[in-house]
Amino acid sequence: MATRVIPPRILRKLRYNTATKPFQPSLSTPTLSPPCYLDQKPPSTTTTLLPPTAVADLNFHDVEKLFSYVSTTKLLRSTAVLHATAIEPMVDFGTWIMRSELMQTNNPLRNLALSATRATFYDHFCAGEDATTAGQSIGVLNEAGLRGMLVYGVEDAMDNEACDRNLKGFLHTVDVSRSLPPSSVSFVIVKITAICPMSLLERLSDLLRWQKKDPSFDLPWKQDSLPIFSELTPLYHTRKRPEPLTLEEESDLELANKRFLELCQKCVQANIPLLVDAEHTSVQPAIDYFTYSSAILHNKGENPIVFGTIQTYLKDAKERLILASKAADKMGIPMGFKLVRGAYMSSERKLAAELGYASPIHKTIKDTHKCFNDCSSFMLEKIANGPGGVVLATHNVESGKLAAAKAHELGIGKVNHKLEFAQLYGMSEALSFGLSNAGFQVSKYMPFGPVETVMPYLLRRAEENRGVLAASGFDRQLMRKELVRRVKAAVF
Asked: Is this model's pTM higher than 0.70 or not?
């Protein structure tokens, strides 16, 4: 398809209103609740009800209003990048290059490949090469009424040295977040695989799974936690009774606990919630263990400081969510969850097939949608009547509409510190701005770090989110419509 080039003289005319939304002075006294008020007004003692037209406010017809805070240059680049990522052969070619010998340190073409990646996919899907630059990106988002989830883009540490180095990056992320305008950062994100060696996470997960099979199996190192497994959880990863942790492994576990404790305490002091990302099922039990044991220590009052993540493409997702939530309620622990569909579909199905078991993932996308929507409904009802919090991380427009309608039905205020919508940075802009324009809190998941460091994230996004990228036609269509409107406005 030929690409029409817009003459520079027209582009120069396309100056669009990027004025900031009005903000009220921020509160001077922090509280333990997440600093999540977009208008920075103090919380009222009564619940703000959505007006009857609230659901109708979530519309995508007025593209001028929808993209009023997006510059024409960014619209053009976003449309081009999303179109490219929707073409599977192009994604395959880009992935091949990133994994090829071109990326070897001594290859003279490496810098060229990195420069091309930085100028296209990296700049679109990542917030910057360091926390300070990412903070500047958050400032731009904040002017448009959105917030940022800061994600230091490292994962899969193999030894304690790498874990210690990564911890410094996460701690610095909290410091940068604290220096930004109040409420502009909704969460700091951590991957447990970055602060605990992968081999140890695999060992811990094996031991936890075996204890599920045999409750008499003793784990002397285990702290208080919430339920990690349900009756539907597959245990095929652990084929035989694992050996107890060695003295060296126990020492490594103590170091990992100290790292996570330090990060949690830093977030408590900064009054910024910490969200633990979910990963593949071979290590997820250990990740949930770290998350829940820390939540028991740090989550107090009405609002959680430590959030876990449930991947709803897993068949056991809803049961695990309900079990953990009910156990937290009995213990008087406010628990927060991010709900996502999931990002490891290919690897999960491949591993299950290799071991001779059925995939742990729902058979159809329809089943996954239903699970996400059911879990969303459960959490919305829970936070409407009690403590806790939920982040609905979805690119699906129908799920967004259903959740907005459910929030209205339950009388949950639009700008409510217990409810947050979220999308990946550079994706689903229409849904993000549509929800924000309707008054809901919306965050963008914003990974940052040097191109080489964030490369695993970019590759995984390319490989695991092909369906989402291909389905970005909704966004591209609305962006093109707005670009056409701006060109007409400038010319005529």
From this structure: yes
